[in-house]
Specification:
By secondary structure, this protein is α/β, with parallel strands linked by helices. The chain has a single domain, classed as Vaccinia Virus protein VP39 (Rossmann fold). Helices cover 33% and strands 22% of the residues. It is built from 6 helices and 8 strands. It has an 8-stranded mixed beta sheet with strand order 1-4-3-2-5-6-8-7, with helices on both faces. Helix 1 runs antiparallel to helix 5. The radius of gyration is 16 Å and the shape is globular. The N and C termini lie far apart (34 Å). The protein binds S-adenosylmethionine. The site of S-adenosylmethionine has 19 residues, from loops.
Length: 229
């Protein structure tokens, strides 16, 4: 049976949008079903494949949401750390893997821009951070660098970091009318903060730590995969 110990905490709280009801009902239909394809242009197939291929024995999921993509983790994952400022997301993500035998789940209730307490340097084999960075405050991705630095710190040498985030400009980024409308509405509500997030900024931020990182754009979403040297 998976272990569900009490999360380690850092005192930051999540906005009301990340409730259990929203994350269980609206989120999969609206975000994964509609927005990924029609607004953000990111491929769910690419995401599922990333979760199948890259996680290692000890995996950390940053901002796991309702845990939909964690259902695709390979059998080799035996320890799963979950880091999120929403207790509801931590609970739902743990539930998404609760049927799997022999996987230990370690929740961390905290803000991703803080130091990741309870996660030592070089302690994990892989990290994912999918569709989180565009929610974080900051005038550009450079101002959200703490997230990328923490991923680098906790990864062991040879460990892999992959992720995705919605961008608003830069080479290759196509923001269609639906995406532009959504970004405006979400920004006004404080759910998104990505007006200054560009593909150039993503490349600079990721490659500043992981020089060989592969960074691509799908629609208006930047996706990356990187290995710690
Ligand atoms: C848009 S959802 C993405 C969920 C999931 N990765 C997916 O793609 O389905 C953003 C997730 O990041 C978490 N999150 C957003 N901002 C955060 C922050 N500052 N600190 C910790 N978690 C955060 C939310 O609680 C939520 O789980």
């Amino acid at each position: 049976m998976p272990e569900h110990p009490s999360p380690t905490t850092s005192g930051h709280t999540a906005p009301g949008i990340y409730t259990r009801l929203v994350m269980r009902t609206l989120y999969p239909l609206w975000v994964h079903g509609l927005c990924h394809r029609l607004a953000w242009g990111v491929s769910n197939r690419w995401l599922r494949r990333a979760y199948r291929l890259w996680p290692g024995h000890t995996h950390l999921s940053v901002g796991p949401g309702n845990g939909t993509f964690l259902r695709h983790l390979p059998a080799g994952v035996r320890e799963l750390h979950l880091l999120d400022f929403s207790p509801h997301c931590l609970h739902l993500a743990a539930r998404a893997v609760h049927h799997r035998r022999g996987i230990a789940v370690r929740p961390h209730l905290q803000d991703v821009l803080d130091t990741w307490k309870g996660l030592d340097e070089g302690s994990v084999d892989s990290v994912d951070c999918v569709m989180v960075a565009h929610c974080l405050p900051g005038a550009s991705l450079a101002e959200k660098r703490a997230l990328f630095c923490e991923a680098y710190r906790v990864l062991r040498p040879g460990g892999r970091f992959f992720g995705a985030t919605v961008l608003t400009g830069g080479p290759g980024v196509g923001v269609n009318a639906f995406a532009r409308w959504l970004i405006g509405a979400y920004t006004r509500r404080g759910w998104f903060s990505n007006q200054g997030d560009t593909s150039t900024g993503l490349v600079e931020t990721v490659r500043g730590l992981f020089p060989d990182a592969d960074v691509q754009v799908q629609g208006c979403t930047g996706v990356w995969t990187a290995v710690k040297r």
